[in-house]
Fold this protein.
Amino acid sequence: MLGALRRLNGPVGVVLSGSAGVGKSRLARAALDAIAGRGGHTRWSVATVSSRAVPLAVFADAAPARGDDPPDGDLVHQVASALVPDRPGARMVIAIDDAHLLDPLSATVVLRLAVTGAARLLLTVRSGAPTPDAVTALWKDGYLTRLEVQPLSEAETAALVEQVVGAPVATATVTRMFALTQGNVLYLRHLTDGEIAASRLHEHNGLWRWTGTPTLSPGLVELVQGRMGVVTEPVRDVVDLLAVGEPLSVDLLSKLTDPDAVEESESLDLITVERDGRRLQARLAHPLYGETRRASIGTLRSRRLRGMIAEAMAASGGRRAEDSLRRAVLSLESDLAPDPLLFTDAAEHAAQLGDLPLAERLARAAVDAGAGFRAQTVVAQVLTVAGRPEEAARELSRLTLLADDESELVSATVTRVIHLLTSAGRPADAEAALDEAVARVADPQRPPSPLTALRVFLDGARGRPAQAIAGAPAALDDATLPDESVVLACFGLVAALASSGRADEMEPHVARAVAAMGRSGFATFRLSLIALQVAGLRLAGYVDRAAEVAAACLQQAQDHSFAGGVASYLVGEAELGRGRLDAAARLLRDAQAELEAFGNSAGWRHVALIALVQVAAIRGDHAGAQQVLAELRARPRSSAMAFREPENALAAAWGAAAEGAVTQAITMAKEVADVAAERAQHAHEVLALQTAVRFGDRTVADRLVRLAGTVDGPRAPAAAAHAVALAAADGAALDAASARWEDAGDVLAAADAAAQAALAHRGRGARAAEHASASRANDLADRCGGARTPALAAAARPLPLTDREREVATMIAAGLSNRDIAERLVVSVRTVEGHVYRACIKLGLSDRGAIADLMRPAASPANSGSPRSTRTTSPSTKASKPVR
């Protein structure tokens, strides 16, 4: 824009066009200030609705005195000349805000300035607003360049809000603010200021979140009302109905209001009409219209309007599940009598969507209306998932009292066992409750299929895949198995298949469980089932497919706090699997923020922390990794996530690697693999062995080769090829392993293999090959957002040190004392001192502090501002003495 204003040939200025509030005026003002700051001559004028009736209102100071009015033609020339005084070598820039409101004579003056080129012009106009012909001619005839100022995108909204608050903002908060403001800068500014003042937009643990329901500031309400304009009563009725119940079909809206008013509302840009399948759906043209009107509608009127919509929806016979949910929500807040069956159906659907607060509200309303056992089951399940064990226990007691027959008693037992395992954190009691139920049936040797299904669920969730897989057919082959038991059996079976390395078999069981949820209303397991599917795909090495499934989940769940938090974790973990560290860190941070209100329900925050440890460690941020590890260890583990225990243990290995304790990290990873093998969790075994290989272990190739023949997916064979190449120090084979990892989508593993290839080539004196592999490793690490794993660090700074000396040097840079290093290496302090001494001799350094200075940039770039490691000797200590 500034370039266009300085251009000597062509158009003599710029017109900024856009809707109200997109930032045209601010942009124009900033440009004018920049020109004035460089010594330019500028003029700023604002046209208004009231000034439109006054000739030359914006140029009053340049108009002749009253009584001296020349003919119009001479008057235009006189005013234009007065606006551009004779200043040799100077160029005047005249800016007019809201030029579509210029009176006809002022518009003619502006056109003359453009035609003669006497001044540079900068105008703003509102898109779609009636504009004087003389102003329209400015861009139609090529005198000015017209630029459309678009609303902010969601990413731009995030950047602007983060600039205002000076810290990261939760993705869900940005999404919500963007949905409400639609990228309108003016609305966004008022909304942000108002919500900060009300403490609803606030910072917690370094992340800004928006909680609660917004109350629009008077200034924002005034802006929105001004944009809506004064409307007739029939149009207001259309707007108010949509404010409490959008979207509505055009047919339904026309039945409830005046059809002519619906058409008029669209022509006034108050509503939009879009096709949804065979329906024409009406929505308010801007979300803030609804917020503004809802604040103005009284309680009684809003309840009556909601009741009208709910009754009309019932009469129209909407068959979509979301229709029933919307009708239930409208009825809940209306003057209609409660409908227990409608509330129960809707509560189950809300639970399936992951909107736990709404599911609880609807289920409790159904119970209050006399719905009975089914609605009470939803209440107990939702409280269990939401991490409120004491309340869940009370509701479970009520559920047992409502059971009328053996089927409902078994169902109550199922809900109680799930509560004990997932919410109360009492796995032994869960097992005992199931055993007690089995003992009570007529033939304990052949318990009812629902109890068998519950056993499969417990085996899968608690990391006993062999038992779960063996027990599943007895339940799932029973054609009379209730749908809720189908869900449980499939859950346990999918968990077992994911962990045991049989991911290719998961899909039909996932599909069967989803179908059963839709029929039974046993919907609170939907998110957990998707999480199992994502975990199985990720463990098998189908990282792109895992990301697709997780992203689809987030798309459906982002409007609901709990579901959005879980889905953010799933996408974050999937992005970590693909090596996208920045995206992973942001999403995992968002997940922690969203799930905080739900405690550690079902272990979601715990597994998110596992992933965050890896993100920090892979970036070489040893302090960050240790901080997250400390939180992870302090948080009670969820027994519902016991099958993920190998990954929990691997987090500690990554923490050790981040500190430079690579030997310890390898030992820990191999121990994890051994435990996983004992439990037949072969997918986890592969992951742990692959991690050891990435850390530099050369002893597990044969084991991975065997696993590659039995474990599904690309991870096992790729890890086996990587391990074989590393064991042989074969640079070419490591390059091939790197390419294989990249093809599979695991860019981090590809970077590590390339870095190890560089060192292997270096060991054989193949300098050209070394540089090619090192360059590839750096490129891959950059694609990941700055990965700094042990392999990458070693390749990035080759030094004349043994592996053990480099390991000690890296731990020194991480701030560890000699005693700390000795504990991690399981050697004596004197042995460590010997390694430090030899490293100093080889590097020509005087003490361990100098080693830290040399190694720190490579070891931990993220911590370059952190305190230096503590020296136990003075800087003058000579290298001829043992360095302590």
Remarks:
- The first strand starts at residue 13 and ends at 18.
- The longest helix spans residues 299-316.
